[in-house]
Design brief:
alpha+beta; 2 domains; 7 helices; 8 strands; globular
Length: 218
């Protein structure tokens, strides 16, 4: 007798933070029916960002033809240059999957620091399908998330140079900025997969999961 899965099979995504001094990426399983606002939530939680800045998804990094984001005011630079769709009205599978072609697309977070994430579709493995329970799941994580407002990839490279060198004249100032105690050490490779998945589960079963772009800032 054929076994019928309890949940529809997931989409598997690799989210890679570009232009970094070391590898930072996440592999996640997501429901096939999620919208792009929900994917924004997933990226923020899995990467370790703090929901502190604007974002948008686009089919190409430069000169995009399709954009999904939070609607901006008419006098906003980005609103004048892109014909964007509200992120909660755009379904991942129907838009960025491109009718089964599954082309890479982009997530741009913080229009000042310019954190570019390249997102690719991957085929779920047998192990992925065994652990899939229908809610977002991070199956692999590499590299700690950079601090917010550190100055983008180049600012982060400078940050690493300072924070890992006790003899650097700005070392103590940088530690204070990070809120590190005298015994704490900053490790750019440390990432807690268990904590990520606990946060993802909490997100999925919270009211935020069904939030609309109209209520995003409320």
């Amino acid at each position: 007798m054929k076994t019928i899965p309890l949940h529809p099979p997931p989409l598997k995504l690799k989210i890679n933070l570009e232009n970094m001094p070391h590898s930072i990426y996440r592999r996640v399983l997501v429901p096939e029916n999620i919208n792009m606002l929900q994917l924004h939530f997933i990226i923020q939680v899995t990467m370790g960002w703090e929901f502190a800045h604007l974002f948008q998804f686009q089919d190409k990094q430069y000169d995009p033809s399709f954009v999904a984001n939070i609607p901006y005011d008419d006098d906003n630079f980005f609103a004048r240059h892109f014909d964007a769709y509200p992120a909660d009205n755009v379904m991942l599978q129907e838009s960025f999957e491109m009718a089964g072609q599954r082309k890479p697309f982009w997530y741009w977070y913080d229009f000042g620091d310019d954190w570019w994430h390249r997102i690719t579709f991957q085929k779920p493995t047998k192990k992925d399908l065994q652990v899939w329970k229908g809610s977002p799941l991070c199956v692999e994580a590499c590299g700690a998330c950079p601090p917010e407002d550190v100055g983008g990839p180049w600012g982060y490279a400078e940050f690493l140079e300072i924070i890992t060198n006790k003899k650097h004249p700005e070392h103590m100032e940088m530690r204070e900025w990070m809120g590190l105690s005298s015994r704490e050490k900053y490790d750019p490779d440390t990432v807690d997969l268990t904590a990520i998945n606990e946060a993802l589960e909490g997100l999925f079963y919270s009211g935020d999961w069904s939030l609309s772009t109209a209520d995003y800032f409320n």
